[in-house]
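tool_call: predict_structure(chain=1)
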Amino acid sequence: MVKRFFSYYKPYKKLFALDFGCAVIAALLELAFPLAVNYVIDKLLPGKDFSMIITASLALLFFYFFKYIYAIYCHVFWPHAWSKY
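tool_result:
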């Protein structure tokens, strides 16, 4: 069954590898965000260092937007750009 699956993707090896790599990176980013929020809540908030809390919050906001743009770029732009190959 797996052999049959890969036979369909044989002409699109590069696109498959790119899409699979993007999916792995997107999954890692999806897992990293809750860990970063956990650090902010458990370590920074009890310390009451408000400048560090604001900096970490802005970094989390940037990270969230980066993750969103990366997902759109990987799942919308790259497949269309590589569909010719």
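agent: The helical segments are 2-9, 13-47, 50-82. Proceeding to next step.
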